[in-house]
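Archive record
______________

***
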Amino acid sequence: MRLIILMIVVLVVGLLSMQQMAPQKIPQKPVESTELTSDIPTIPTHPSELKPFADDINRYVQQEAANRAARLEQATQP
């Protein structure tokens, strides 16, 4: 009887550990088409492209901040 209980406990612990070690699928948030824009700077692949990328990303961030401020102001107007 003890052996059967021990085997059941080992089986349950084994199944629980297998579930914990199995790769878990993380649900991805769907990206809306309005969030995608073609003017996002591409990531540099060479060190020589780093300076132009920094300028491009700064310009992109400033434009997006201005767009968000404009949308916010438009949304708060009566």
